[in-house]
Amino acid sequence: MKTFVEKLATLSGVKDVGFVRPFPGGAQTDFRIEGRPKPVPGNEPYVEIATATPGALEVLGVRLVKGRRFNKSDDANAPLAVIIDDILAEQEWPGENPIGKRLSLDFEEVSEIQHSWWTVIGVIHHMEVYGGVKPALPEAFVSIPQLCTPTGRSAGSWCDPGALLISSDEDRTSLEPMVRDVLYSLDPDLALYDFAPLTEITGSFIAPQRLLVVLLSTLAAIALLLAAAGTYGVMSYMVAGRTSEMAVRRALGATRIDLLRLVLNQGLCISLGGLIVGFVAALVLERLVRPTLLGVAPRDPMILTSVGAFLLIVALAASYVPAHRAMQLNSIEGVRHE
To answer: Domain map of the chain by residue range?
Structure first.
């Protein structure tokens, strides 16, 4: 694997290359912090753990918050190193610098390091690999060369290369043949499959959530059009039913602006009533939509205020046509109509 990565790094246009396993996401395992009591069985904290080679996190574009990423020095002869995300850092060391802190990871397949301490060398920004569908567990990465060493240590399935990640300026059609040639030069019996852009892989992973968002957005647009049409119909009926009243108001000195304000105020009252009902329903049903939200709180005051203001604007726009018709009303014709 090391030779394969080194040869890939020499290809034209290749910036970074590395392996990650598993991908996307990680395997859940429990952990404990050095210097703290051992967790009660059944109540252990869990972390999503994945293995990576130097260069893998660079390909993923993960933002480094503190410390460093893996490099070639993180091998079998170096102290066991782990990179954690900012969620785990804030959870276990709030207000402290986690670099240099140590934790024990439960690798049951590797007896040699079963109770070893892993030193935190870096903190990265949390990656939301499940699109908000699953609860966000803290994430951690360990170095593949430290799990699987030339001296014989083997971590079972953890030693499988996993997903090959390449960052390159070349497009897919020109990069894929070069990668295949390098692979076949090392072992003609190996096969390369599922060669695809990272955006395509992650996009397919969250496709169900994207479809749900599109569906909900379409239904919301239809509901908005129906609400606008309903508001227009109600206000038109109201204006038609109060024709004589408005004619009398005009005869007694009411201006066109007064009639406009009368109609719009009634439309505003109807809209405010609907908004109150909608806000109450949103607060009651928030649990149903919470799993589909990513980076957005279901009770975000800014979003609720913005949506409410937009709906009021739509309602007032739908009320303006009947209100404008009332402004053009002639008092003599209105009384004759009655």
So the answer is: 14-168, 207-337
